[in-house]
Design goal:
heterotrimer; A mainly alpha; B alpha/beta; C alpha/beta; B: alpha/beta; four-stranded antiparallel sheet; 12 strands; 21% strand; globular; C: alpha/beta
Chain lengths: 301, 331, 334
């Protein structure tokens, strides 16, 4: 074996990190993004540890505490910091438990939708032909349906409940990542390293899952986080309309609905759950914006 | 002795046309006649240099031979087997023996895989080695191309263009193929690195007994590495022959124009006579009738505009597709 | 005594990056006479493009000119305020880029882009804004014809994407020359083009230089281009000038080991049996370079005394080289 005489020297100026790691570091360097990430994770923690941190049982009703105002107002009580609702249930505890619903549904719907959407998008973008035609037409049709109305119709048919809500929201949600992934797959299919994989005899699934998918994760990540906020608002809307989780399970949307008739006087019934929705959605949006900026190649050298 | 690779009547068209509906919607698409009937032969252990400018179809031809683009028509005989007629599993087996090296060192390596994974992949796909045996073979290949085992766990973005090209070469050669399409392997590199890679490709050719189809637009490089040269214009071969003969005595006007357009080191700042070509390269979507070169040829006649000349043997080892050369050769 | 149009003295341009201070141009000096065509040859990392970006005042944060002088027709450009620089760019010094596709604005017609330059700089336009536009449009037509765009009248209102690569390069040249600048800097004008088109574009630049008495700087990595079109050549490596002189002499008898190595690594059509010899190794990183010859690690003739700051030396007949043992091996063998 001859050795090649033209030694190329040591590899690499950069430290041994992947581009993904570098982008994550960029994300971490934004204080705004990290702050809101912290808040989002705070909500997640709240959801997981709900039974441990909620001061009271969210279903514990006591008509003597009915419409109790928040602690800092006249008549308030510090053991019920945010006051009580029309049935005397502690609002703070209900908000804490309500985060379970929002987080659970947000995460589950996105996970389901992204998985389906990614697989469908890869197949449509790489295999083309009738697979692409069928999937694309399906995407077009579903996009034409108004989200909420169809969700309402589905729930009306199947009945409310956590599982059905997830399905009702996921039915259309998968279309969003699918479109993104299809576009990225189309763009990446012609790249030389994909051609190289074909030239060495790699199978189609190998190419889709190991060559293309890892390289298009960044936009998928960004889109998923953006959509999570959207899904949470949708769930709140469904709950507000009474189609979401049923009592006694607490959901921020239904809490807002319950407090509707009391808006003028006992404003705390609707306002605090409303603020919770606002804060969670805002945090997720800021985080997704930060991710988008960190992964956007235009902002790099 | 018959050729290792014999291509006859190879055609590759990209048909994007949408007929009536397309015309109504204002998006009729187009028929791109990238490769329009090519006959070529490459002897075992030889290098055929394929030269041409943008739009001539040379890259498409290289890929069509490997069925990375499915040929529209024609036949590719590799070591007696018709590659175009193979079914999926036979084609996969054939891929061990026919490989390709790409032009763009930045796009030809998956940024998410380490160097080790990239070079090991062909072996994995064909189950040729596993475990530590596989790692040994990968390291061996890396050493042969001028890298070392310390590079195994690094990512492509940590390497320079020349080093990436070496990784691409290691990947293409690890299965010890017989035939390699080199698609502009040095065009994207700095001049001094080009020389390194050219020498590396030559060394590998000797060591592994390879046969090359070397595609490039750089005449000096092609002249240096090739045993025979084929000149391509708008999807057809217009001239072919042994390197020295084609370069010293070009028979086709396009070849002559190409050769005189190359800046030479020997001449210093001053005028020199050249065959100046007017106009742009026509598009493969709308090739001119008759001889494809007639719109730019300084010698074009009425015959050239009407009928397309065949690639015919002229003299020595040379063939050319030109009415006038034929007349001269016969006359 | 030749009339000097551009004189660069000891220019140093740095970039303050995350990985450290990159000195892209380190002590570059060169001069250009009126009507002269100077070739600047170098590979990646040589600093050739950054040198002329500095001349044009286009080096932006995190880049900056650390020291040195750029003298254009008697005026000092280092430290020139942006307003005066804008007056200079396009009117007296013009630059074309390698990639015509990104350098031309896809949203404007080509005539528009030429007209904008004229309206900004041309003092001979007179009358109302509308009248000026009309005159400028006429000049734009003449420019397109000058650069050899066929059927120029019909193409005036075409967009850049409607032109082929070679034609786009010509359009860029037309824009650059609209105000008849004294100096044209062409950055890799032919690298992205096919060889038959390359020849057309280079002939065009040579013709225009003759017609307008313009000075031209051709930045390229192609020694062949320099050999055919440039009166003098400057060879750059790792941010420094390593050799300069009249083109013919430098190519026939290169003095610097890098120039020699470069010439030995290029295949020649005139002698196909000659083996090429690659230069081993790669260009060094431009961060924290020690005070020694930058080519040392790749040089076949390196000695202990190369581990020192090497200055440019005169070697007669208008030539200079940055080497303590120039010439020696090679001569006409290269």
């Amino acid at each position: 074996m001859t050795t090649v005489t033209y030694w190329t020297g040591d590899a690499g100026t950069a430290k041994s990190e992947t581009l993904f790691q570098r982008n994550m570091k960029l994300f971490a360097s934004s204080r705004l993004s990290m702050f809101f990430l912290f808040i989002t994770l705070g909500f997640v923690f709240m959801a997981i540890a709900a039974p441990l941190i909620a001061p009271h049982d969210p279903s514990d009703a006591d008509l003597f505490r009915r419409l109790l105002p928040p602690a800092w107002m006249d008549g308030g009580d510090w053991s019920f910091p945010l006051g009580c609702d029309a049935l005397g249930r502690d609002i703070l505890s209900r908000i804490i438990f309500g985060s379970r619903v929002s987080i659970f549904i947000g995460v589950t719907v996105i996970l389901v939708a992204t998985t389906i959407g990614v697989l469908a998008g890869l197949a449509a973008g790489y295999l083309r032909g009738w697979v692409d035609i069928v999937i694309s037409r399906l995407v077009d049709i579903l996009l034409g349906f108004p989200y909420l109305i169809f969700a309402i119709a589905l729930i009306a048919m199947t009945g409310p409940g956590l599982q059905n809500i997830v399905l009702a929201l996921a039915y259309k949600e998968w279309v969003i990542p699918c479109r993104v992934v299809r576009g990225e797959t189309l763009a990446t299919s012609g790249v030389e390293y994909v051609e190289a994989a074909r030239a060495m005899g790699a199978s189609k699934s190998d190419i889709m899952l190991r060559e293309i998918l890892p390289n298009i994760l960044s936009p998928v990540l960004v889109v998923s986080t953006v959509r999570m906020a959207h899904v949470i608002i949708l769930e709140a809307s469904l709950s507000f309309l009474g189609l979401g989780v049923q009592p006694p399970m607490a959901s921020w949307g239904s809490m807002v609905a319950d407090g509707r008739s009391f808006m003028l006087q006992e404003w705390w019934l609707s306002t605090f759950p409303g603020l919770a929705i606002l804060l969670l959605v805002l945090s997720i949006n800021v985080v997704s914006q930060g991710l988008r900026d960190a992964f956007d190649p235009r902002f790099h050298d | 002795m018959s050729d290792l690779l014999a291509i006859s009547g190879l055609v590759k068209h990209f048909d994007d046309r949408r007929g009536l509906l397309g015309r109504i919607t204002g998006n009729p698409g187009a028929l791109v006649q990238a490769v329009n009937g090519v006959d070529l032969g490459i002897g075992e252990g030889k290098t055929l240099g394929l030269i041409g400018e943008s739009g001539c179809g040379k890259s498409t031809l290289g890929r069509a031979i490997l069925r990375l683009h499915e040929p529209t028509a024609g036949q590719v005989l590799f070591d007696g087997t018709d590659v175009t007629a193979l079914d999926a599993s036979d084609l996969k087996a054939m891929r061990r023996r026919m490989q390709i090296i790409f032009q763009d060192p930045y796009a030809s390596l998956n940024p998410r895989l380490t160097v080790g994974e990239i070079v090991a992949k062909p072996m994995r796909i064909h189950a040729l080695a596993t475990g530590s045996d596989l790692e040994d073979r990968v390291v061996d290949m890396l050493n042969r191309v001028g890298l070392n085992s310390g590079h195994l766990n690094r990512y492509p973005h940590q390497f320079s263009g020349g080093q990436r090209q070496r990784i691409g070469i290691a990947r293409a050669l690890i299965m010890k193929p017989k035939f390699v399409v080199c698609d502009e392997p040095v065009s994207a590199l700095d001049v001094s690195i080009q020389a390194q890679i050219v020498e590396l490709l030559d060394e590998m050719k000797q060591e592994l007994g390879l046969t090359y189809l070397f595609i490039s637009h750089d005449i000096s490089v092609i002249g240096y590495v090739s045993d025979r040269i084929a000149v391509m214009y708008l999807g057809k071969i217009v001239e072919e022959g042994e390197t020295r003969e084609v370069l010293e005595n070009p028979m086709h006007p396009y070849t002559r124009a190409l050769l005189s357009s190359v800046p030479h080191l020997e001449k210093t700042a001053g005028k020199r006579d050249r065959t100046r070509l007017k106009g742009d390269l026509p598009s493969p979507i709308n090739p001119p009738p008759g001889c494809k070169f007639n719109t730019r040829c300084p010698l074009a006649t009425e015959l050239c505009r009407q009928s397309e000349p065949e690639l015919r043997h002229m003299q020595g080892t040379q063939s050319a597709a030109c009415h006038l050369s034929l007349a001269n050769a016969e006359g | 005594m030749k009339d000097t149009v551009l004189q660069i003295r000891d220019l140093k341009t740095c970039f303050d990056t995350r990985d450290g201070m990159v000195t892209a141009v380190d002590g570059v000096s060169l001069s250009l006479g009126r009507g002269e065509c100077l070739g600047v040859v170098g590979e990646s990392g040589s600093g050739k493009s950054v040198t002329f970006a500095s001349v044009m005042g286009l080096v932006k944060n995190p880049g900056f000119i650390a020291k040195g002088s750029i003298n254009f027709e008697g005026r000092e450009l280092v430290g020139l305020d942006p307003k005066n620089y804008r007056k200079l760019r396009g009117k007296e010094i013009a630059m074309t880029m390698q990639d015509a596709q990104t350098a031309l604005n896809p949203a404007y017609t080509v005539s528009n882009q030429i007209i904008e330059v004229l309206l900004a700089h041309d003092e001979t336009l007179s009358g109302s804004r509308k009248a000026q536009r009309r005159q400028a449009r006429q000049q734009a037509l003449e420019m397109l014809q000058l650069v050899g765009i066929p059927s120029a009248e019909t193409r005036l209102d075409d967009y850049p994407h409607q032109f082929s690569g070679g034609m786009r390069q010509r359009v860029m040249i037309a824009i650059a020359l609209a105000c008849k600048p004294k100096l044209l800097i062409a950055d890799e004008p032919t690298t992205a083009l096919d060889v038959t088109i390359q020849a057309q574009v280079l002939e065009l630049i040579a013709d225009i230089r003759d017609k307008l008495g313009m000075s031209v700087i051709l930045i390229t990595h192609d020694l062949g281009v320099v050999a055919e079109y440039c009166d003098n050549v400057v060879v750059m490596y790792a941010g420094q000038v390593v050799e300069n002189g009249p083109t013919g002499a430098v190519i026939a008898t290169p003095q610097h080991p890098y120039t020699q190595g470069l010439l030995r690594s290029i295949p020649r059509l005139s002698d196909l049996s000659r083996r090429i010899e690659p230069i081993k190794g790669t260009v060094p990183e431009l961060i924290d370079l020690p005070d020694q010859c930058r080519f040392m690690d790749r040089c076949t003739r390196a000695q202990a005394s190369c581990r020192d700051l090497i200055a440019m030396q005169d070697c007669g007949a208008g030539r200079q080289v940055r080497c303590i043992a120039p010439g020696l091996a090679g001569g006409s063998d290269v």
